[in-house]
Amino acid sequence: MKIKNLILFGLTAFVFSSIFSFKYLVSLDSVYYFNESFNDLISKFNLWESYNYPFGGINLILWLHPITYTAGYLGKFLNLDWNILVRLFFYIPSIILSFYSIQKLAKAFDLREKGKFLISLIYVFNTYFILLVDGGQLGIMLAYGLLPLAIESIIKFKFYRTLTVLSIITVFDPRFLLLSIILGLLLSKFNFHKIFKLLGVLVFVLLINFYWLLPVLKLGGVNAPTFVSSLKLVTIKDSLLLYQPHWPYNQFGKVTEPAFLFLIFPILLVVSNLIKPNKFKIYLTFLFLFFVFLAKGESRPFGEFYSYIMDNFPFASIFRDSTKFFPPLLITFSLIISQYYDVLKNKVLLYLIPIFLILPLVHGLLTGLNYNLKGLSDVKEIFNLKKITLDPNNFSRTAYIPEKPQLAFQTEQNQAIDGRVLVNYLPFASDNYGSEDRFNFMLRNHYINYFKSLGIKNLVYFLNGETLTAKIDNPMPEKYFIDKLAVVIG
Q1: CA 183 to CA 202: how far, in whole Å?
Q2: Statement to judge: residues 271 and 407 lie in one domain
Q3: Angle formed at CA 416 by CA 414 and CA 422, multiple of 5 degrees
Q4: Does residue 156 belong to any structural domain of this protein?
Q5: Are the CB atoms for 439 and 468 separated by under 8 Å?
Q6: Are residues 148 and 289 in the same domain?
Q7: Cβ atoms of residues 433 and 349 within 8 Å
Q8: 328 and 410 together in one domain
Q9: pLDDT for res 231
Q10: Disulfide engineering: 338 pairs with which of 80, 86, 115, 160, CB 3.0-4.6 Å?
Q11: What DSSP designation does 88 have?
């Protein structure tokens, strides 16, 4: 038992080493809040925010407000850095919750120590969860960690405990409430009495979450983006091999083929069903295959059925990103394999199976991940830009060309604009010639007037390792930048 815990501890320390270091965690999916930004987190409940949108947009993670408010409050009054707070409130809890809740679910199915060890190994160390942490999908990470406990709370139904867990997972990510209900009922013995009691719990869960449900309803609902599913990034091969297709680079749209080592997952699935089969294993296998179909989304085969479900079933559109079905996929798979492993007597296989399950991840981990699980050590230059962009007494925007750094300073008062997004707006797009260089509009003097009309007062340009900065009100920017750019662009 101690050896198994040491293995899990060692793997956690290795895979998530940057989480437990002093490096800055940077990702495309989460914002770095400077101490000046904490006022935005605790001042009021805003439907409109500019942290994730160039000129403002609807806040699509309203439900996380209790957590971000608490983190902002502690940061402001204890003068804590966001790099510490984001670890304390999101990253470390998501890892701890993943271990704790999957063990609780294992206990609900009477798994012993061997089975608990393997189910933890599969649920925590897989391409899906590792990329969630690397990408900084804060709410989804926490919801993933709590999902097995939410399922267990439905299986071992106790009104107040179930109410508490389901309310918390809804705050993390409402989609996981639906996933926990679906899996909780599918893995429970069918019982009308439990269903009615669960409906009573859901009424209270909705009331507790009315702080974000009401504004969303007043807005007429928030439409989930539909383009993700139409890209067909996940194939049936990926879901069958438990492979997140963005592994390991974690760059949206850049998918890779799974290595042959991932074949170990379906092989183990077949073997565990052939050796000591039982009705529950077969039932779990059918559930696994059902979630394989859902996780592939609109990809072939029968992708049109997924499209029909998304378009016609209530609330289905929130699962346009079919990778949200990876958690139930991993849970059903891990339950099947762990039951087989729990009764295994062969000592060689007891050692080999965990190794085979981790082996497919090794190449990606050694190649290196790109964001949080890589981290940043040298951030001095980026932090120095705060001196230029901070203007506590006036509203301003700063344009970053060609793109905004992940640690760019921003508040609602002093906003940061990503150059990659800016060039898509008129009149910049119409002022560009060709498509090779999307910033050649800056060779024409009048671009400064466009910036002024949009409230852009500062300009930061990263050029061949050099950082150029200027105030738009200064008469120098036009000649300064044109001279500099002419050397490069010609």
Answers
A1: 15
A2: no
A3: 135
A4: yes
A5: no
A6: yes
A7: no
A8: no
A9: 59
A10: 115
A11: I
User: What single letter denotes the amino acid at residue 431?
Assistant: D
- CA angle, 423 then 428 then 431, to 5°: 130
Q: Are 445 and 478 in contact (CB under 8 A)?
A: yes
Residue 359 lies in a domain: yes
Return the structure tokens found at 340.
């087989």
Is residue 329 within 8 Å of 239, Cβ to Cβ? yes
Q: Which helix (H) or strand (E) holds 78?
A: helix 65-78
- Tokens 């993933």 belong to which residue? 144
Rounded CA-CA distance 52/421 in Å is 11
Asked if 319 and 426 sit in the same domain, the reply is: no
Using only C-alpha atoms, what is the Rg of the chain? 25
Among the candidates 367, 397, 414, a domain finishes at 367
Which domain does 301 fall in, by range?
A: 2-30+61-367
| 446 lies in some domain | yes
Cis peptide before 277 (omega within 30 of 0): no
**390: helix, strand or coil:** coil
Q: Are residues 390 and 359 in the same domain?
A: no
Q: For 146-202, what is each residue's pLDDT tens digit?
A: 999 999 999 999 999 999 999 999 999 999 999 999 999 999 877 788 899 999 999
Looking at the fold, whether 259 and 303 belong to one and the same domain comes out as yes
Phi, psi (5° rounding) for residue 315?
Answer: 65, 0
Name the burial class of residue 42, with classes exposed (0-12), middle (13-18) and buried (19+) by CB atoms within 10 angstroms of its CB. Answer: middle
- Under 8 Å between Cβ of 397 and 455: yes
For the cut 70, the answer to whether the pLDDT of residue 34 exceeds it is yes
Q: What is the mean pLDDT of residues 328-355?
A: 94
pLDDT in tens, 83-125: 999 999 999 999 999 999 999 999 999 999 999 999 999 999 9
> pTM for the complete prediction?
0.91
Q: Which amino acid makes up residue 473?
A: D
Rounded distance, CA 293 to CA 287, Å? 10
Do 339 and 403 belong to one domain? no
Domain boundary residue among 338, 367, 396? 367
Tell me the two tokens of residue 279. Answer: 């009705």
Looking at the fold, whether 81 and 194 belong to one and the same domain comes out as: yes
| Alpha-carbon dihedral 193, 199, 203, 209, rounded to 10 degrees | 130
Chain centroid to CA 212 = 20
Count of domains forming the chain: 2
Yes or no: say if 439 and 419 are a contact pair by the CB < 8 Å rule.
Answer: yes
Distance from C-alpha of 270 to C-alpha of 278, rounded to nearest angstrom? 13
Whether 45 maps to a domain, the answer reads: no
How would DSSP label each residue in 222-271?
-PPPSHHHHT----HHHHHTT--TTTTT--TT---PPPGGGGHHHHHHHH
Q: How far is CA 61 from CA 58, 65, 138, 175, 375, in A?
A: 9, 8, 10, 12, 24
Q: Which of 107, 93, 200 is nearest to 155 (CA)?
A: 107
